[in-house]
Amino acid sequence: MAVLSNCSREGQWFMLCIIFSALFFFADGKECKKINSCSCQQDDGGIIDLSPISKKDGTAWFSSVKDTITIANRFYWNPCISFTEEACVNVAVCREESMIPNSTYYDVGTQDSAFFIYRNDADLVLGYQGVNSTTIVTLYCTGNAVDNLTVIGESIEGSAIYNMELRSIHACAFYPIYPPSQDGSGLSAGWVVFIVLLVLLCAYFLVGTVYNIVYKKAEGADAIPHIALIMGGCSYVKGCCSKQDKSRSQYSSV
Known about the structure:
Blueprint: H1 2-26, E1 32-36, E2 39-42, E3 47-49, E4 62-66, E5 73-77, E6 83-85, E7 88-91, E8 93-97, E9 104-109, E10 115-119, E11 123-130, E12 133-141, E13 148-154, E14 161-168, H2 189-214, H3 227-253
Parallel strand pairs: 12-14
Antiparallel strand pairs: 1-2, 2-3, 4-5, 5-8, 6-7, 8-9, 10-11, 11-12, 13-14
């Protein structure tokens, strides 16, 4: 009985290791691969393109938008193409600090620094790096024809991280009829690691079985390496399933 108990415990650990390994290797995060400073391609081929809300005349599409935290800051943003606003020269995002009698302008993001990333695998963020500053634009897909930019501003005072939220139909992904080919398309890193581990596991059991037959003169199932551990794991799983079926039948009778 003690041997069976030990085998059962070992089988439990064996199954838990398999489950956690699977979760680790297949927990790939979402990605939107950057195409240019205002568009990216999702894992499923969908493309998000903000070029329809980008001016080409050197000015900002979103101009002089007040933030919700202070009354002194106004922001300018133009996806895709750089613009110039007073002291902000060739930028993607500009912050105006209103002062009397004059305002001061700060570069808070350039086009070449643009990056796309998913926050919590849910919200897509378009970020920019400026002079000692960062601008984060969270993109929300809506069916509204009006493009609405809300400037949150500097949520943490002194952080020089400025938050915005864009709600627009242009923040929605569209799917081209002929999706562009992707370099490096194929198996993900998780699948490659899994296949390598599977091959090594099969090789281990094959070599171990041959060794047990040739050198230990084992026969039948006893030739399989760690057969007691495997049987213990199977018994544990079978026992769990039996308990669930029994509990379900008792609940149904009640």
